[in-house]
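Exercise 7. Given the encoded structure of a 313-residue chain, write a plausible sequence.
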């Protein structure tokens, strides 16, 4: 419809209105960010690690599959998630003659045909409390989930978080979970992010190179910090992402190193001590709360949240 507007002033007003309408239409057409990822307070992540250490100390010094320390760890995480409004499910399986448990937590809302899933193994080896391996990943995933609740994040995609049992026996819990999914439900998982050892005391910054989009998301975050990364090779195929990948689900993740020794070039890039393992307490009794690098834990926890927010918009 054409409007007839007499006079210059009225014509100018009409042009201004048209410009406003055009700008508004462009704004409506532009994709808007749902929300920026929050900073994950490293003090909160460390508080979870303190609780996991206390649980191990009270239960024979470990949180291993089939031991009381594992179930107590799961109960701690579940209570936090239940109080935060997640729908939690405990999945049982059997391994080495003992009952094992996975914990799955779903955040209400989002497109359940597009699931962004983040996970970590919650069990330790029998020889120690497993605070870096893998209390660090478990605590960071828990705090990211709690940040979703605190901010009442409402992403386009559906968010799911998981804590796996019996990873130290061959990724038994995550394998059980993936195998329990129907083909249709596997197809609904648009990405699985794995966090196994992200606070090593002599840390490196390693990114999984499996799915290109997930890899780029993590690399972009660290580039923004001015922190160089390398492709993760030491643990390739040795953590819970392996069975997701085998099922055709896009995977990615972060890692700060285990028993491999840091090279001189890596020490020049990241600091720390060359010729020394990334984690000298790997699978040992000294993997306690004293075995954590706060800077690495902080950076990786924030990178975790950044990826969850970016990939679920």
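Solution.
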């Amino acid at each position: 419809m054409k409007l007839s507007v007499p006079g210059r002033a009225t014509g100018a007003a009409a042009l201004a209105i048209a410009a406003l309408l055009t700008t508004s239409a462009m704004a409506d057409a532009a994709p808007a960010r749902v929300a920026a990822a929050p900073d994950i307070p490293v003090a909160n992540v460390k508080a979870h690690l303190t609780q996991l250490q206390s649980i191990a100390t009270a239960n024979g010094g470990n949180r291993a599959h089939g031991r009381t320390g594992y179930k107590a760890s799961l109960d701690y995480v579940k209570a936090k998630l239940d109080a935060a409004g997640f729908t939690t499910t405990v999945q049982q399986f059997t391994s080495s003659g003992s009952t094992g448990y996975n914990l799955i937590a779903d955040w209400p809302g989002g497109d359940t045909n597009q699931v962004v899933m983040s996970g970590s193994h919650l069990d330790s080896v029998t020889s120690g409390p497993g605070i870096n391996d893998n209390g660090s990943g478990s605590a960071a995933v828990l705090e990211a989930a709690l940040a979703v609740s605190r901010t009442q994040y409402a992403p386009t995609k559906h968010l799911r978080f998981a804590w796996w049992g019996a990873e130290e026996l061959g990724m038994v819990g995550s394998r059980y979970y993936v195998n329990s999914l129907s083909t249709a439900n596997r197809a609904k998982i648009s990405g699985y992010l794995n966090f196994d050892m992200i606070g090593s005391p002599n840390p490196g910054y390693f990114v999984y190179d499996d799915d290109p989009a997930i890899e780029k998301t993590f690399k972009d975050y660290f580039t923004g910090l001015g922190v160089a990364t390398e492709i993760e090779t030491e643990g390739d195929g040795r953590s819970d992402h392996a069975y997701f990948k085998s099922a055709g689900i896009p995977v990615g993740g972060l890692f700060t190193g285990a028993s491999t020794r840091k090279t001189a070039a890596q020490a020049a890039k990241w600091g720390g001590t060359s010729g020394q393992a990334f984690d000298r307490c790997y699978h040992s009794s000294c993997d306690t709360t004293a075995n954590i690098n706060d800077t690495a834990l902080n950076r990786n926890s924030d990178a975790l949240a950044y990826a969850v927010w970016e990939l679920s918009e």
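Remark. The CA atoms of residues 41 and 298 lie 7 Å apart. Students should compare their own answers with the one above.
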